[in-house]
């Protein structure tokens, strides 16, 4: 089949786009607003974009409030900081619950009964239950226009300035024990994938 997204002529019951760029890593973004309210939400339009400095991005669609900006994006833009927590099999239910649309004054960390712990270099909290935390300094926002004038996406870039890895997830050889972490990835619809020992394979790079 062939279709043109703008014409929405795929003829399928659901938009297939989200099922085509998969699996997407999930940036589980914790932040704090200007008056100290914590916030947590998952973003799967998320990725690492460079090594030196290590840089990540997440793309936030429109939010329900007057400024049309989701809480995570607003907090990062106003405080200049966020943490990207690694979502894994163990934390999958809380990750999903933290996507609830709540007013800015609500704290999803409290709602999901997760544990906020201080970061080393920034004031945004980390999620204790996550195996890995990337402490990030905001770099910039790139606004992506939507099809309608009222529609836009904020792509937020941040430099990773501090990285916490729980020691139990580092092997004796000094490698990240991905099979133990069991990261999860976003597929389309409400589906996810998990990285487990039998789903990992190795390919040697050509010379
Ligand atoms: C697995 C998952 C991935 C998501 N990815 C995105 C995303 O990439 N961009 C986005 O705008 N919303 C995404 N959402 C929805 C947000 O998490 C949701 O709108 C949330 O309420 C935003 O919270 P905030 O306003 O506290 O930032 C995702 C939800 C889930 C469950």
CATH H-tier superfamily = Electron Transport, Fmn-binding Protein, Chain A
Unreliable parts? none
Bound molecules: flavin mononucleotide
> How much helicity do the residues have?
10-25%
CATH C-level label: Mainly Beta
Largest sheet: 7 strands, antiparallel
Count of separate DSSP helical elements: 4
| DSSP strand count | 12
> SSE order, as H and E?
EEEEEHEHHEEEEHEE
3D shape:
globular
Q: What is the average per-residue confidence, as pLDDT, rounded to a whole number?
A: 96
Q: Please tell me the total number of domains.
A: 1
CATH architecture: Roll
Write up what this structure looks like.
This protein is mostly beta strands and 207 residues long. The protein has a single domain, classed as Pnp Oxidase, Chain A (Roll), CATH 2.30.110.10. The chain has helices at 71-79, 92-97, 108-111, 178-181, and strands at residues 24-25, 27-32, 38-43, 46-51, 54-60, 81-86, 116-117, 126-127, 132-145, 152-165, 184-186, 192-194. The strands form 3 sheets. A 7-stranded antiparallel sheet has the order 3-2-6-9-10-5-4, covered by helices on one side. It has a 3-stranded antiparallel sheet with strand order 1-11-12, with no helix packed on it. The longest helix has 9 residues, at 71-79. The protein is globular and about 55 Å long. The mean pLDDT is 96. The structure holds flavin mononucleotide. The site of flavin mononucleotide (FMN) has 18 residues, from strand 3, strand 5 and helix 1.
């Amino acid at each position: 089949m062939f279709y043109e997204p703008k014409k929405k002529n795929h003829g399928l019951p659901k938009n297939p786009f989200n099922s085509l760029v998969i699996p997407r890593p999930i940036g589980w973004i914790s932040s704090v607003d200007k008056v100290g309210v914590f916030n947590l939400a998952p973003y799967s339009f998320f990725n690492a974009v460079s090594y030196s400095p290590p840089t990540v991005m997440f793309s936030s669609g429109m939010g329900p409030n007057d400024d049309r900006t989701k809480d995570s994006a607003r907090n990062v833009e106003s405080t200049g900081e966020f943490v990207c927590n690694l979502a894994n099999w163990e934390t999958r239910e809380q990750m999903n619950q933290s996507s609830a649309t709540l007013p800015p004054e609500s704290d999803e960390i409290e709602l999901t009964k997760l544990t906020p712990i201080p970061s080393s270099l920034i004031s945004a909290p980390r999620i204790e239950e996550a195996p890995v935390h990337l402490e990030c300094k905001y770099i910039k926002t790139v606004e992506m226009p939507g099809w309608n004038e009222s529609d836009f996406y904020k792509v937020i870039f941040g430099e990773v300035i501090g990285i916490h890895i729980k020691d139990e997830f580092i092997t004796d050889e000094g490698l990240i024990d991905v099979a133990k972490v069991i990261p999860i990835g976003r597929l389309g619809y409400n589906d996810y994938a998990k990285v487990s020992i039998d789903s990992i394979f190795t390919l040697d790079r050509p010379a």
